[in-house]
């Protein structure tokens, strides 16, 4: 489980934002480990103090697990940077998108 409540502050309760981050982590994780996207499952769940924020739960879609999430945690920053690349479109999009 990844708890976004500390790094996102009040935005940790924004389900659209947290779901976007979660999907980016799932897609980038599958890409880095050269897996089919269905091998990693992601969902969001209440977390943080009094459950006011949201966090991501990622897990292997294999009975008993396959260790993929552990591999991703070991990649650390590389995984986060790949997730950023998944979310970033281009400079023009960033300047004109009304939902970013």
Please provide a brief summary of the model.
With 100 residues, this protein is α+β, with helices and mostly antiparallel strands. The chain has helices at 5-8, 15-32, 68-75, 77-87, 91-96, and strands at 2-3, 40-47, 53-60. The chain has one domain (2-96).
**What general outline do the C-alpha atoms trace?**
globular
Overall radius of gyration: 14 Å
In total, the number of domains comes to 1
User: Main sheet, how many strands, which sense, barrel?
Assistant: 3 strands, antiparallel
What portion of the residues fall into strands of 2 or more residues? Answer: 15-25%
What is the terminal-to-terminal distance? 24 Å
* Number of beta-strand segments: 3
Mean pLDDT: 86
Q: Quickly count the helices.
A: 5
Order of the strands making up the biggest sheet: 1-3-2
Notable features of this structure?
5 helices, three-stranded antiparallel β-sheet, globular, 100 residues, alpha+beta
